[in-house]
Design goal:
globular; Rossmann fold; Dimethylsulfoxide Reductase, domain 2; six-stranded mixed sheet; Barwin-like endoglucanases; 3 domains; 23 helices; 738 residues; alpha/beta; seven-stranded mixed sheet
């Protein structure tokens, strides 16, 4: 158990957020420290620019200090609702990316065969002409729909406009089908709306929170970690369901080391107990939900004893944790998670989470799911809207009917198979596809079938070595992006603006997209001269006055009037489902031939000598985006392979011993050091994702640790929305001596 007196500051120190400024002092050259002061303290003569971080998707507000054109320190922006004056280690360590000597600084054009990683430097004029020529050739031969864009990051918005203007709907972010998509589908099917980002979780006021494989304190979603810490300081009880004793498990009243792949059975067991024991919120369910009787009948078989057989969680523990949630309701919630693509039934597992939350009556309740609102923001006056004629090629007719975004792996499959129609060109923005999409062999095979590929990136990641043209983008600290206005408890508009001049000959994405639009005859879709004009005119068109525009540029964020966060007692609500109610039993799913209530099906288990491969995050890294960052590598220099201590002893493996890891298909990665620990089950191993780079141009990251993505050669596709369940690979270990 965690003491109720645990403070927010203490939790952040434990999880690795606080104290990083002092830790980073050793990575700042002595001359810079003498000139600009130690990190964490203001220096005389600082100029401070407010902007928005891009070290992960959370988009926290930042204040960047600089002197003489050199950025010297990054801190959280108190005026921004997502950071509230605090940053995670990645945010404060972003100068390591800005000043990374391995950054791409000039355009590159391929020489030799694709994949040989042979390039020559080019001028921007030559490189952009080559990109325009390649895209134009594909359009003239195959039509504009033969172009696909795969992207990650806010700067991709300008290229999305370009690709739509050319006439293609084939635009996809791997973060949907390879990460968060199943929970959006599961919650939309149940509540009629997805969760978005940031998720509307009232953690600061919750009395009990269940984490199902959600690693708060390691994923370092800034606002959530702050709220989680505040909840802990108020005595919040935490139930962590995870095969591994995570950072969050160390703050929990309960750790349930579940058998991997059986979370569905546990959730349905909780639902059964809430119903059978009368612990559910009867008034909320009767007013807002439909399908209760059908749900009760379907989950009746998930008794504590039956769930124990599947999960390994004792019946008394299942009862006690269900009771904890019920007693705290409606100020209790089951966290929906973020990276939820595990076993291929992930939308249904996310729906099971949504159903348990509905039974707790926590939607629109203090300590549950708050109601979000959004700042109004209009488009640029006179900017035309693009309407591609052909539907996206990410699925065949009748596939993934509950996906509300395009599926990146589906676009790769269309490139490979030509169905439903072929893709001939890729525009890849900020996404290292071989380490993002499952089964990298398919990714490389698809690339070889392309007529043309352009990669836009900051660092020479593996994907760049396969491109025909590489365009070097400047970092988020050197550019404008479009305005940010998410749904949140405090609606706001945030601004990313340049802090320092671009290094080398790198350019901002908006400039590249606009220049390509000119060459391709679609510059009408970029009717502004520069992004500052775009930003100011959007604000004025919406009705914001000059003082508010000035506030946005000065403080980096402009807050607007919030809507109510919680339901009033007995308040009516129109849910976005076909029935207008929370759908505990789904007619939509039944009509399409799917289970109207989630069903647990036992996944394949490891064979003799095999372990299920699990992977996750470290609090100081954003997957492979930061594993070349000298500052952050000092805090977490390489990944390790977690294995149960007793199992390691049986295998003759000692702590710190390097091993090679091989999966069921013969794919191998390593060496990686063994972390023998009692904090993980005996039937699985775990490593942090993002290491084991094979690009020799990433000089700090090359060959360091193991690449879990190389081991994900199998995956199960979610039939509801196309997500790729990747926790279905098994590995063996071989010691490396000498």
């Amino acid at each position: 158990m965690i003491p109720a007196t645990l403070s927010r500051r203490r939790f952040l120190e434990i999880s690795g957020t606080a104290g990083l400024g002092a830790a980073l002092a050793g990575t700042v050259p002595a001359a810079m420290r003498a000139r600009f002061g130690e990190p964490g303290f203001d220096a005389p003569g600082d100029e401070v620019v407010a902007s928005v971080c891009e070290m992960c998707f959370w988009k926290c507000g930042i204040r960047v200090h600089k002197q003489d054109g050199v950025a010297t320190k990054i801190e959280g922006n108190p005026a921004h609702p997502l950071s509230r004056g605090r940053l995670c280690p990645r945010g404060t360590g972003a100068l390591g990316n800005l000043y990374d000597p391995d950054r791409l600084r000039v355009p590159l054009i391929r020489e030799g065969e694709r994949g040989e990683d042979r390039f020559r430097e080019a001028t921007w004029e030559e490189a952009l002409d080559r990109v325009a020529e390649g895209l134009r050739g594909v359009i003239e031969t195959h039509g504009p729909q033969a172009i696909a864009m795969l992207y990650h990051g806010a700067g991709g918005s300008f290229f999305k406009t370009l690709v739509k203007a050319l006439g293609s709907a084939n635009i996809a972010a791997p973060s949907y089908a390879q990460c968060r998509g199943p929970r959006e589908a599961g919650f939309e099917l149940t509540f009629g709306e997805g969760l978005g980002s940031p998720e509307p979780l009232d953690l600061a006021n919750a009395k009990c929170v269940a984490l199902i494989g959600s690693h708060l304190g390691e994923n370092m979603h800034n606002t959530q970690v702050q709220d989680f810490a505040e909840g802990l300081s108020k005595g919040m009880r935490v139930i962590t369901v995870d095969p591994r004793f995570s950072t969050a498990a160390g703050k929990s009243a309960w750790w349930l080391p579940i058998r991997p792949g059986t979370d569905m059975a546990l959730l349905l067991g909780w639902a059964n107990l809430l119903i059978q024991e009368g612990w559910y919120d009867r008034a909320f369910v009767e007013q807002h939900a439909t399908g209760f009787d059908q749900l009760a009948a379907e989950v009746a078989r998930y008794t504590p004893e039956a769930v124990f057989v599947e999960t390994g969680i004792r019946p008394d523990v299942l009862r006690a944790t269900a009771r904890e949630l019920a007693q705290a309701a409606p100020s209790a919630l089951v966290h929906p998670g973020r990276h939820v693509t595990w076993y291929g039934d992930d939308s249904q597992r996310s729906r099971a989470i949504a159903i348990v939350n509905a039974l707790l009556g926590n939607w629109g309740a203090l300590g549950g799911f708050y109601l979000t609102s959004k700042s109004e923001l209009k488009g640029f006056p006179g900017e035309p809207a693009a309407h591609p004629e052909a539907p996206a090629a990410d699925r065949k007719e009748g596939q993934y009917v509950f996906a509300n975004e395009n599926v990146a792996s589906g676009l790769r499959d269309a490139t490979l198979t030509g169905e439903p129609y072929p893709i001939h060109a890729w525009l890849v923005y900020g996404s290292n596809l071989p380490n993002v999409l499952p089964d990298a062999r398919k990714t490389y095979e698809a690339i070889q079938k392309l007529d043309f590929m352009v990669a836009i990136d900051i660092l020479p990641a593996e994907i760049c070595g396969w491109a025909d043209v590489v365009l070097p983008e400047c970092t988020y600290l050197e550019r404008y992006d479009d305005l940010i206005a998410p749904f949140h408890r405090e609606p706001f508009i945030a601004l990313r603006q340049p802090v320092v001049e671009p290094l080398g000959d790198s350019k901002p994405g908006w400039w590249m997209a606009k220049e390509l639009a000119k060459r391709l005859g679609v510059d009408a879709y970029f009717p502004w001269e520069d992004p500052r004009e775009l930003i100011e005119e959007r604000m004025r068109a919406t009705g914001y006055d000059e003082a508010q525009v000035a506030t946005l540029f000065a403080e980096g964020a402009l807050r607007t009037e919030p809507a109510p966060l919680y339901f009033a007692p007995g308040e009516a609500y129109e849910w976005g489902t076909p029935s207008g109610k929370i759908e505990l039993w789904s007619q939509q799913l039944a009509d399409m031939g799917f289970d109207p209530v989630p069903v647990h099906r036992r996944p394949a288990q490891p064979g003799p000598g095999e372990f299920r491969l699990l992977f996750g995050r470290a609090p100081v890294h954003t997957f492979g985006r930061t594993t070349n960052n000298a500052r952050l590598l000092q805090q977490f220099p390489e990944n390790e392979l977690w294995i149960n201590r007793s199992v390691a002893q049986d295998l003759g493996l000692r702590n710190g011993q390097p091993v090679m890891v091989t999966n069921q298909d013969g794919a191998t990665t390593g060496p990686i050091k063994v972390k023998a620990t009692e904090r993980i089950r005996h039937d699985c191993v775990y490593m942090v994702h993002g290491f084991g780079h094979t690009s020799k141009h990433l000089r700090r990251a090359f060959g360091v640790g193991a690449n879990d993505a190389a081991l994900v050669t199998r995956y199960e596709v979610d039939p509801l929305m196309g997500g790729t369940g990747m926790n279905v690979n098994f590995v063996t270990l071989e010691a490396v001596e000498g």
